[in-house]
Amino acid sequence: MPHKLTFLLPLLLTSLSLRAQTTVLEGRVLNTKTGEPVPFATLGVPHRSIGTVADEQGRYLLRLPAGLTDTLVVTSVGFSREVVLPRALAAGQREFRLLPQEQALRDVVVEHRRVHPALLGRNSAKGDILWLAGSSGKETVDDEWGWEFGTLLKPAKRTYLEEFHVFLATNTYEHLRFRLNLYAVEQGRPGRVLVTRDIQLICTNKEHGWQTIDLRPYALELEARPVFATIQWLQSEKKDPWDKYFSIPVTRQPKQVVVERENSEAAWTTHPMQPSLYFTVMTE
């Protein structure tokens, strides 16, 4: 998504071309056990740039190319992954149910350990370029939801996460919602999800600058091994999305890796850069 604003005309022409060829699916994502909505569940087609995110009530609107016969995957933090086969979609299935995963609760006690405060990541607000994301050049925004962006981090010792920080250099949205994700490193890319609780960051009134999440209530602990930390775009206002965008500074540093994907099931891409994104931590 970098340099997205540079190509408004091609985006416009592509949008006009695809609009008549799109099938729109609308429905809900529900909790299998309770029947309640699963807020901000993600829906995506594996290895394609096709997907979206449900709203607070589990309602979704998914735009698919006409004639698409691929599998749909529905996921959410703390739930099992649901695979929806093409024949189920063709038969009219629009309600998807996710099974909650059993979560073993444990207490993390750090008071009696020898720990000290530290930073993990890049805490500079300046960068070589701005990594742009948004809906500029488009009449819709919901098919951008699910976009994910982050970086590789390398804790040297056991680390306890206290706060998460990301710098928004620009933000023209009245409302933005992100999810914080942590992944194990598998073959140089994000793999197994390491968090079991939904951790969100909400920005209102075009907020920019450093945005922070207090992580102490989540008792997040990292081993001394590489990990990917990302933010996932969950929601923004739908009104007048034509010229809306936000940006994050990045700097060229070959030893760090930026990762990005278009939605929850798209392929990850990697870049030799590091974003303005970091954690304040306690480390052993």
Automatic annotation (TrEMBL):
<keyword id="KW-0645">Protease</keyword>
<keyword id="KW-0732">Signal</keyword>
<protein>
    <submittedName>
        <fullName>Carboxypeptidase-like regulatory domain-containing protein</fullName>
    </submittedName>
</protein>
<keyword id="KW-0378">Hydrolase</keyword>
<keyword id="KW-0121">Carboxypeptidase</keyword>
<feature type="signal peptide">
    <location>
        <begin position="1"/>
        <end position="20"/>
    </location>
</feature>
<dbReference type="InterPro" id="IPR008969">
    <property type="entry name" value="CarboxyPept-like_regulatory"/>
</dbReference>
<dbReference type="Pfam" id="PF13715">
    <property type="entry name" value="CarbopepD_reg_2"/>
</dbReference>
<dbReference type="GO" id="GO:0004180">
    <property type="term" value="F:carboxypeptidase activity"/>
</dbReference>
